[in-house]
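Give me the fold.
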Amino acid sequence: MTSFDLDAPEYCCAILRDRAGRYLIERRPAHSSHQPRRLTCFGGGREEGESPEACITRELREELTWDEGLIRSVGLRRAVRLESKARFIAWFFAGEPADPAWPFRCEHGYEAVWLSEARLLAEPSLSSWHKAAILALIRGEPVAVVPK
């Protein structure tokens, strides 16, 4: 993977928003090795040779127990590229859950929560990377830069 490979990020995440404007966010447990007790978008690390689309599909299946049909119906699309000065970090995909009442079954200790845009953006436990990507999507910007 090189910094010039536009389709090979380290991570792939999903910004999931329903028609009412609420965001489906993951609350990580205290025992999480990355971002403990923080709010993040669902997603994770891309495996070697895995396409970004395959990565986000796998991550949503693992983290929300979504099957292939539901993931397709969400209509995920690449929306925001997260980068720092030195590297391309993540693709954030945008999508709308087809059924906000879906009975999410997260990994042990993780929680799926719905938050309004105002509440989410005011939440101090929202990961700075994820906040940057969500703000870029709201502004219609295709690139978010990791905050310093």
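The longest strand covers residues 88-95.
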